[in-house]
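Budget justification note: compute hours in this period were largely spent on complex prediction jobs such as the one shown. Inputs:
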Amino acid sequence: MKRPDAVTAIAVLLLVLVLAGGALSYAAYPGEYGAEGVSTATGADFRLRSSLSTEYGVIAIDNGTEAPVSKLYIFIDPDYVPYCTDASGADAYITQVEKELLRCGFDNFERVDAKKLLDLMLDPPSAVEMGILIPFGTLPDTVYTGQPADEFLNWTAKGGTVYWMGGIPGAYKVSEGEDAVKVSSPETVFSFVTGASKGEMIADEPVDPMCSALNLISTSTRFALSPAYPGVEGMGVKTSDGRCSISAVKDGPGTFFVIAGIPGSEQRHDLSILISAGITYQSEVADFETGAFRGHTASSLEYTSTNVSVYVIYGGYFPIFGKRIIG
Amino acid sequence: MAFKNLGTVICPGCFSIYMSEGRGAKGIKAFIARHPAVFIAIVGLAIRACLIPFFTYTYDVYHWALTISNLRSGEGLYGLSGYYYTPVWGYFLAGIGSIADLLRIADFGDMFYSLAFVNGSEWDYYQALVCTPAFTILVKATLTIFDLITGYLIYVLVKEHTGDGKKAVAAFGLWFLCPIVIYTSAIHGMFDVIAVMTLVLTVLLLFRRRYGLAGAVFAVSIFTKFFPFYLTLILLVLVLKQEKEAVARRKALITLVLGFVAMFVLIYLPQIIDGTFLDTFSFVTSRVSEISVGPEIKDVWNLIQTIGYTVVIMLQVVILSVLFVIAWRTYRLPQEGSEFVAKYMHRLMLSTAVIFLWTPTPTYLMILLPFLAYAAVTRDENYIIPFVLISVFSTLYALAMHNYSLLFQLYGYFGAVPLDYLVGGIGWLDGTLFNITNRTLVNISLGLAETLSIYAIYLFTYWGYMKRNPREGKV
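Corresponding output:
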């Protein structure tokens, strides 16, 4: 029998490899992942499983007197185009945020347009445990005109949380079908933006243990709140003068989180983990464990606090699965 | 893989047998004389082995890790952003991810916050999240295998066409020891070599009249990186010239097209099913974030790039026209047999050069190197000059583009580079001379040198023609 020549063999092998890779990409993935946890007298026991070799992190977060967000509204409206992108760019980015949230273990979100946003502001059921994402630094004039009496303020007044990305809070507003315009003095409505960063500064010091435990990756500080403003807490990575890639500040009973930088993949990553892990203004790491495994592993965390969330994330800085197993 | 050289077949372990016979330097010399291709392969692999664990262009390799994590979380190749190419390389990444899983490589990368100073740089492609040596070794070892197979295919091509083992070894050596080939796979971690390997394989299969297989492999080539598409016409000319009879010609073309279409459908089936087909061409439309704040054009380099993209788009008319003319004139060649093959391969090389009338990213140039090496060893040894020029200047250009980011892995995982060195170096690149950054000046200079080294091919083609046809004044 004639032996097949090497060139033909290479060609056939190559085609087989490509097709096998294609099949693998969609048939073999995702892996099977799971995590469970129970509270104990000394903290929590957890059990993890993964069909793939992966890094894991299990983080116990003491939330003080606050409750993690359990429902997220995302503002996006094609008729109210933000200052930094167009309608299709905004939609594409929000789609990515939604997928990232799902990957990190948070599935209770809903898009709202300008009208629905106004409805929420006029009659917030009780905004505690509810968050709203303003992704591109621009509010619609249905809820915000730059005046202290604006409806948008109802949200935090009722205890809600705001996740702000893409600019200094309150710096832009937009009317239906028009271009976004700058608001001259956003600090008259949001006093905490006084001294917020307009440019980029080098942030190379992680605010640990939170930053490393949650594998936060954004190092941008553009639009970060000033640490000089009373009550501003920093998370993520900080500059030498204390400006952070994630800032949090109380606004009445509610909370404002500012995710600094131009909305990109790093901000999306940090935002999704922040929400999925249930981070609040008062959150502190009570205990955490990291490692690598394949198959099953189990261990426990030790803490004494009572208002604790335990969050699990697989994949290290390349997350593949997340779940809040307690709280 | 065994390299046959002048009737000798190498078996694994031969080298150690030579050494164990106690011949020392003489033994090595004898080994090299008898098995030069194996010696070149060993040297090439040794060079790569020294580079692979330590030097990495972090930005692209980070995206390979991100792609695998997207696959692992069930988002496919295009569900979450991070992968901006046609699917073939993504499928290889799926395989690399599985090997990582088998080898229990769980840590793909770590954040080195001290590298966050790069945020202040004008260049956006520094990455503080640096992939682990284990992961990068896995990626780059895969690419090195393709380097080696490509070299073997070049060897076979030259050997088949000339019957000269020495020339075949020389062509293999030119490829496998070429700095930009080594750089692209062993440092950059970029997959251009797969497109090159499949292109050379397509040419070999066409010469062997295995048209169905050639069509399928060509589909893999095009949908790995797009540049082989430019050579469609001249590859079709080879079929037309080989098959003189109308029936055989029709059959060959149908088989070729069927092979191509079948493979295209198989490659794209997942994206056709999940509705992400158009996303696979995002490298043509956009690979950057849609969100922007402030003016896009930051400095002279950005301006040059913006103008450059426009020029590249406009040049496509010229490039496609010239490629058509070359293909047509090749079709009209009166020569047959080995004479035709020699001319055909020369024009194939010229066609690969014509693709880059503009200044390409250095790794793109790899597509012309197998054919330039072929021309240098079979047609005109003076082609070695543009080969060397392209190799050197494209590598320098790549080094200048990626600069200090190549040391991030060495800094983060081995502590072998002080942070101050990186800060100072990147700071110098961001420094200005007459309001133009040093980075821009270096890039312009080396980009120009790279372009001129490509153009040197035309110069040597003209000189070669004049040498062979001294009385005629035109090409």
